[in-house]
Specification:
Organism: gamma proteobacterium HTCC2207
Helix content: 10-25%
Number of strands: 2
Radius of gyration: 13 Å
Pfam families: DUF2256
Protein name: DUF2256 domain-containing protein
InterPro entries: UCP037205
Number of helices: 1
Order of helices and strands: EEH
Length: 52
C-alpha cells in the first residue's frame, strides 16, 4: 500500500479571482491541468465580472 502524501507535498495553484492558493484534490486527479478556479463561487464571480 502506498504511503500517504503530506498536504504540503501536493501541487498548488493560485486562484485568479480571489488570489488565494489552493491545493490538488483527488476529484481533480484527471483534470488538474484544466482547473483554474478554487471554487464554484470564484468561477461564477469571474464569469460575472467578464459580462459586466
Amino acid at each position: 500500500m502506498p504511503s500517504m502524501r503530506k498536504k504540503s507535498d501536493l501541487p498548488s495553484k493560485i486562484c485568479p479571482v480571489c488570489e488565494r492558493p489552493f491545493v490538488w484534490r483527488k476529484k481533480w486527479q484527471r483534470c488538474w491541468d484544466e482547473v483554474r478556479f478554487c471554487s464554484v463561487k470564484c468561477k461564477a464571480m469571474r464569469n460575472k465580472a467578464q459580462s459586466d
